[in-house]
Amino acid sequence: MKTRRALTLTGLLIFILFLVVKLPASVVYPLIKDSIKGPDLAGLKGTIWSGQATSIELMNQRFQNIYWEFHPLALLTGNVGIDIDIRDPQYPLQAAVSTGLGGDELEAKQIKGALPAAILQQIPALALLRLSGVLHINIRHLLLVDNEPRAAAGEILLSEGHLQQPVKTLLGNILLTASQQEEQILVKIKDQQAPISIDGTLNLQAGRKFNFSAKLKPGSKANNMLVGMLRNFARMEADGSMKIQYQGIY
Fold this sequence. Notes:
The chain has three helices and 15 strands. The protein is mainly beta. It has two domains: 1-100, no CATH class; 104-250, no CATH class. The chain has a 15-stranded antiparallel β-sheet that branches. The chain starts with a helix and ends with a strand.
């Protein structure tokens, strides 16, 4: 009797799941959006299982032409797996994302594409800066726990970066390389022939703590106003470079 009840319940759950995944995304997503804290999606087509949207709003930026595909086998291990493909003409991005049914952890692999540098303003420690340029993304692995990065490996290249506020000036190309070091994320920061050369390290620790240290050296094309501002926070070295150290919460 118990076996029959278990089989009946299992069959009922599979039937309900089948109905849900076959329903149009335009019907299902508005019903679950608030409960899953989902982003704003417009022009939904297809199903929750496999569909597309004309646009999505993420980090105060809107992207076009979003496609997704769920992996049903991931549910057998208690996870939700999804491939995301943003085919935005200016900022394309692809990633394989998985999360537990509890939603506390989110893991992303093979994140490749481009994002506007303006999204960095969403980081509280950078909120006063206004940046432009393109972030070229090649992240092999990223793990978030309660929206806090706990593991990362890959590279981000800021291309044609410009600072718009508090001073308008060219930053140039800057490469960030992330790796795991025990329980910390270590980010190496190195310019690629920028007006102000930078050789620095950013350590991201549990509890959203960070420790930043860098050696900056202005070149002949460096913005004098920016150099003057940096000197207020730096220790001057004998070779004319500036040493900056800063720690806090991001």
